[in-house]
Specification:
This protein has helices at 17-24, 39-49, 93-109, 122-127, 135-143, 171-174, 177-193, 220-234, 245-248, 251-254, 265-275, 311-324, and strands at residues 5-9, 32-37, 54-57, 71-76, 114-117, 149-153, 158-161, 201-205, 238-243, 259-262, 281-285, 291-294. It has 329 residues and is of the alpha/beta class. The longest helix is centred in the N-terminal third of the chain and has 17 residues, at 93-109.
Length: 329
């Protein structure tokens, strides 16, 4: 396979984002890594961390070359003001969004084959007067994608979500046939197209305890989930469930499925994060581009200290590389 070019956005410049990007640059990768960032930010942070780094401006007209430790390609984007580790400045919020937009544009143009994102500080972007609810929403708008699906993954487990950051009281009303059809179609399509799984099998969780217990603990399964799954099965999807969430995460089921589909955020993600703490990643499904991300925050108190854990970023890069060739990860 040709060498892929992976765009990496370091996120909030005062966070651990630049740190873990520099740590990743010390490793060997079967891809060309391109940091979309302020060059001086990375140089300053490298000196603070005691890391050796040589920055080379990316040439989008040249074919990608395999990354070599200590040498990092860069697509320069200028900061508004110097970044101080641990002290975010709203003046740099436009810079953060500019790095994301450049990564999106590079992927849409085919200059880069995937993008990997380090964490942003949403509150700082909002403090700058810019409405911003998160990476996922930004990427959906930037690519003109009407519906995306959040999937988190560890080495041996994938969990996709029907709903994301909703109050629990609002979840039942959000679980409609239309939502389930949209999100399961996206999940099935990307498991096949971006992960190279020929015939994906998806374990679908119920909404209520014991998957409703035949209507005694809620009728969402009977009225909505079961009929919708039946329709999707008739269209060719291999769906298991709805399953009680408290017993679905066991080896007998997980070994026979390619992903678990949870109805809400805290139904599926605590199990995944326990299983892969420090190794989990976030993957946005439904986009016309490949996007993976770390599954942690900015850790401002660790910025510049050399104690940040880069494993989630490493896994996000590995997954992005594997997804560019459509192999199962």
């Amino acid at each position: 396979m040709p060498t892929p070019r992976i765009a990496i956005t370091p996120g909030e410049p005062a966070s651990i984002g630049p740190d873990i990007v520099l740590m990743a640059a010390q490793q060997q990768w079967d891809a060309e890594l391109v940091a979309i960032a302020e060059p001086e930010l990375l140089q300053q942070r490298a000196r603070l961390l005691g890391l050796s780094i040589k920055l080379q401006t990316m040439d989008p007209t040249s074919p990608p070359t395999t990354h070599q430790p200590g040498i990092l390609k860069i697509a320069p984007v200028k900061l508004a003001t110097p970044a101080v580790p641990g002290k975010p400045d709203p003046a740099n919020a436009p810079y953060v969004l500019a790095t994301l937009q450049r990564a999106v544009d590079s992927c849409l143009a085919g200059t880069c084959h995937a993008m990997v994102t380090a964490p942003v500080q949403k509150s700082v972007i909002n403090d700058a007067g810019i409405p911003f609810s998160g990476h996922t929403e930004f990427l959906a708008e930037a690519t003109g994608t009407p519906k995306v699906v959040m999937m988190l993954a560890t080495q041996n487990l994938r969990v996709a979500l029907a709903t994301t950051h909703l109050p629990l009281k609002d979840v039942p009303a959000a679980i409609t046939p239309e939502l389930l059809q949209q999100t399961l179609h996206i999940l099935h399509k990307d498991l096949h197209g971006k992960f190279g799984i020929a015939a994906p099998r998806i374990a679908v969780l119920g909404l209520n305890p014991h998957a409703g217990e035949a209507g005694h603990m809620g009728r969402e399964e009977i009225d909505t989930i079961i009929p919708t799954l039946a329709q999707l099965r008739s269209a060719g999807m291999d769906l298991l469930g709805p399953l009680p969430a408290d017993t679905a995460f066991n080896p007998k089921i997980l070994d026979d499925c390619d992903a678990v589909f949870a109805m809400y955020h805290d139904q599926g993600l605590p199990v995944l994060k326990y299983a892969g703490f420090g190794q989990a990643i976030n993957i946005t499904l439904g986009l016309p581009i490949i996007r993976t991300s770390v599954d942690h925050g900015t850790a401002l108190d660790l910025a510049g200290a050399g104690s940040a854990n880069p494993n989630s970023l490493y896994r996000a890069i590995e997954t992005a590389i594997e997804m560019t060739s459509g192999v199962s990860v």
